[in-house]
Please model this.
Amino acid sequence: MTDTNISAQHSDILIMGAGPAGLALALALVRSGLSVRVIDRISPQTLADPGFDGRASALASTSWQMLQNLGLADGLWRDACPIDRIAVSDGLRKGGLDFDAGAEGMGVMLPNSLLRGALFEAASADDDIDLVMGAEVAIRAVDAHRATITLADGRAFSASLLVGAEGRMSPTRDLAGITLVQWSYRQRGIVTAVTLEKSHQNTAFEIFYPDGPVAILPLNDDDDGRAMASIVWTVPEGKADAWVSLSDRAFGAALTKMSGGFLGEITPVTPRSSWPLTLCQASAMVAPRIALVGDSAHIIHPIAGQGLNLGLRDVAALAQVLGEGARLGLDPGDLAQLKRYQDWRMLDNAMMAGATDVLNRLYGLPGSAPSLVRRLGMQIVGRTGLIRRFIIDEARGSSGDLPELLMASD
Model:
């Protein structure tokens, strides 16, 4: 840690990373009168590109409520596909689970490019948010009074608080000296978008196999009226390249077979991408004048589709803590205040990481005996109203102590 540059342009908060978590945090913080600057190496053209690349996210009901509170939901609603039901099965065997949230709904599916673009457009239009894009960081420094970021072109920016929202390879986390507990699942997630011969009826399907689950997540119909879905297929690391390199026809045939044909023929319509699956958990979410949100603090298995929702819950909690502190005249980088945010979020993040890890390992056990145990467990869950309600509340993101940004306004 070095002395800061007193000539640096100062703001209350410096957010490193213009992904969904970073931009949502910026929009939330300016509502409390805090000055915010966001720095990222990505270009504005990339952030604003609305092109659909097959990647989409499941936004829990409370995450969608956040977008409503930030004034973004109305503009995104036309492209958001409601998730009314979740269906879980052990392969194609009988005895699966159906979770129907009724009129409440579970949340929505939304293409990543549209979410990213809407957040960027809103942040760009806000005079209280300074976006510094296409920026290469040369020096990062923190002292007792401020954090300072110096760019390769010589510009310097300081703030009372530095927020790491860069993702799993977070330089801000490294600057803080926060260690990371992590391990590889030796699996890769393959993502693409497909058309379905039959309607998904706004249902998210999760089909578990020993090699990994196949998630079929509902999207809005395409321009020709064909049902669409986002696919997240977990495969062993050694098989991923072979699956990705298959022709569209062969890959679609494999998906149709894996689904048992209940959705008819499945046809890929976007290029496939894949990424290594890991579990990462930061040992802390704060340090003097530093806070972490989203993937900079935690990465979980995509088995439950909750990674982005956890990050947005971080955003809502940090925004509330800093907003309340601002009203009391507190320094945004006050460590006692930041530890309140950490205490609020660490348990929820750790519990979700543990739950997804256990699920992945449990359903990865081959053989008839583990399969029987799993199906018996699903029958118990299916017949126990309290457990079903808990799972639905977790899927909707409505359990626990919720920040105000995740709740409907009075």
Remarks:
- The mean pLDDT is 91.
- The domain at 9-80+112-181+283-365 is CATH 3.50.50.60 (FAD/NAD(P)-binding domain).
- The longest helix spans residues 335-363.
